[in-house]
Design goal:
Length: about 250
């Protein structure tokens, strides 16, 4: 089964790169409420419309050496990072879950997290236009695939969202309502393993905060750190290893 799943992961990699390329369009246009279809992709600096070969995921960035062919303006490293991260995560989903409906749901979930993380990193927002429809879609898929766990999906989503809402009330500068809504998505996807995702995400954010404090002192408090990418990181850890982590933790009691 492992060799079969490895072949599935390899086969999913190239299509997932194309998905990552589309996610870059979402990241650039959706927060500005622009069409995701028209006009064609162009350099934001000079307006140069990209030829087809300038839109090939990863390869075009390498061939262009990270610069616009029209004006030589540097192309954001976000483009290849989103493409590669999406491809690796989707491939990992098929490696982990095989050729199954769970793999497709997990791939969708990972793609959404990549897009939200990139948007939050660049703009400090988590758009409802992505978070809420994705939550509904994932919950519907989970209930359809695993109806016996319906209570778990709903309770985990509401519980995770309530947990971050309480944290928001206690420390309003630490996060926003977008993070609270994102926790709802994490819960309906991960079930009880969402607790692992939240803890890993919060610990990762804490580690970065400590590093910044060590390097910049009190001035680091003024540094705005988007929490969405950390929640996404924790969710990815929980998606692939959450059950084992939670079992190992509970087994100590």
């Amino acid at each position: 089964m492992t060799s079969v799943n490895a072949a599935l992961a390899a086969a999913a990699f190239a299509p997932a790169l194309a998905i990552g390329s589309f996610l870059n369009v979402v990241v650039a246009r959706l927060p500005e409420k622009r069409s995701l279809v028209r006009p064609r992709s162009a350099c934001p600096a000079c307006g140069h419309e990209l030829a087809w070969w300038e839109n090939v995921p990863l390869l075009s960035y390498a061939l262009l050496r990270g610069r616009c062919r029209g004006c030589s303006t540097p192309i954001s490293l976000r483009y290849p990072l989103v493409e590669l991260t999406t491809a690796l995560l989707v491939a990992a989903c098929f490696w982990r879950f095989g050729l199954s409906s769970d793999a497709f749901v997990a791939s969708f979930f990972c793609a959404v997290l990549v897009a939200l993380s990139a948007i939050d990193f660049e703009r400090r927002i988590l758009p409802d236009r992505i978070v809420l429809p994705s939550t509904v879609a994932v919950l519907a898929a989970q209930v359809a695939l695993h109806p016996e766990r319906t209570v778990e999906w709903v309770a985990a989503g509401l519980g995770a969202s309530l947990f971050l809402f309480v944290a928001l009330v206690a420390y309003p500068k630490g996060m926003g309502m977008g993070d609270v809504k994102l926790a709802l998505l994490l819960g309906v996807m991960l079930g009880w393993e969402v607790s692992v995702g939240l803890m890993v995400g919060m610990l990762a954010a804490l580690v970065l905060g400590v590093v910044l404090m060590a390097r910049h002192g009190i001035a680091a408090r003024k540094t705005a750190i988007p929490f969405g990418p950390f929640l996404a990181f924790g969710a990815i850890v929980a998606l692939f290893w959450g059950e084992a982590i939670l079992s190992a933790y509970l087994g100590r009691f």
